[in-house]
Amino acid sequence: MATNAFQKIYTQLQAITKATVTLKAAGISNDELAKVAGRLAQVVKIKNDLVTLQVFSGTEGIPTNAEVEFFGEPPALNVSEELSGRFFNAYGEPIDGGPEVIGERRYIGGPSVNPYRRQQPSELIPTGIAGIDLNNTLVSGQKIPFFADPDQPYNQVMADVALRADVDKIILGGMGLSNDDYLFFRQKFEDAGALDKIISFVNTTEQPPVERLLIPDMALAAAEYFAVDKNEKVLVLLTDMTLYADALSIVSNRMDQIPSKDSMPGSLYSDLAKIYEKAVQLPDGGSITIIAVTTLNDGDITHAIPDNTGYITEGQLFLRKDTDTGKIIVDPFRSLSRLKQLVIGKKTREDHAQVMNTGVRLYADAANAKTKLENGFDLSDYDLRCLEYAKEYSTKLLSIDVNIKIDEMLDTGWKLFKKYFKVEELGIKQALVDKYWDKD
């Protein structure tokens, strides 16, 4: 963390609350970093010569004559190609044993790209996961969350997406990661030989929760350097945004702000939006695509965190365990990519939309057949075939461990249709049936 040669040091506090200290100081700027009795803090309010600092780890035990040392700048990151392959903490300091990054100093948390410079997203981002690429295709410049229960392997999915995605740079923002998760990401990236295009900013469970609030801005400052300055396709992976929001709540409570729904701060929507709105497709080809994990409490999507997230993002990817196969799948009913129509059939094969829609409809018919079975009704031959189809569809196309290209996903869909159904049961255009029914 860079500091000025002439740091301002004060030793007289005017007031102390649970989260803040106030003192008289001159020449201080908004968001400037400081240390209060050795604890990291940030300027949150300036009124005349009275400066209020939020102390990240709390003020307990800080005396009124504590030493306050101002750094002379807000949180910042040195940006250059040297970021590639490195692991950093919430302050942009290396945690991988490597040297400090030499580069241009940039403040984090700036405004999102001017709407005038934005282009409509139109580039496909394949992930190899059929539940995404086939049914909920991602587009460069999109912002979309994974909704998942805490016991699901969402970090494994994020790592798989990182290694399979066809992009120039992947930036991981890990918030509240366990040491095991941190080591998992590091080992997975190293083993795949992909470290050269991956940059990681990590806050672990052992570090103060409020430090998580810096992680998304650090990750996005790096993303903007590569997308805007270098015209690269950048994929930003953020996990876990629920822990980020919990940190917002901690700070809000310490600041004695009145909580809103589910004990979250009233600013939750704008706090989340300023992160997600950094997703962009730029006219010169650079892009920032954001995929973020939001963990749920017993699948509750009405909680303030997923509820606000759903208003901001362009869909969601919903992970759940399929009871029939035991596989973790991308749920075709609760998942949605609102931008997929921009690439389906345009950047993918002509039969994509029909195979996608038919596959999901038949899976829905299987769910209806399962309900009939549970309620003691007799099943028709069609119902029985739907149930068998659903098991294979779940295993071969919805499961998160499927790693194939989109054309192979479409071919697999046709093979399953042919195995279990008659052509007239599918409702697919005859021209596509003629071309793909007997393919291979």
Quick overview of this protein structure:
With 440 residues, this protein is of the alpha/beta class. It has 11 helices and 21 strands. The radius of gyration is 25 Å and the shape is elongated.
Number of strands: 21
- Rg calculated over all Cα atoms: 25 Å
What is the CATH first-level class name of the largest domain?
Alpha Beta
Shape type: elongated
Architecture per CATH nomenclature, i.e. the level-2 architecture of the largest domain: 3-Layer(aba) Sandwich
Strand coverage percent:
15-25%
Report the uncertain regions: 1-6
Number of helices: 11
The CATH topology assignment of the largest domain is: Rossmann fold
Q: Return the structural class.
A: alpha/beta
- Please bin the fraction of helical residues: 25-40%
Describe the 3D structure.
The chain is built from eleven helices and 21 strands. The chain is of the alpha/beta class and 440 residues long. The chain has three domains: 63 residues, Elongation Factor Tu (Ef-tu), domain 3 (Beta Barrel), CATH 2.40.30.20; 266 residues, Rossmann fold, CATH 3.40.50.12240; 85 residues, no CATH class. The strands form four sheets. Strands 9, 13, 14, 15, 16, 17, 18, 19, 20 and 21 form a ten-stranded mixed β-sheet that branches. Strand 2 and strand 3 form a beta hairpin. The protein is elongated.
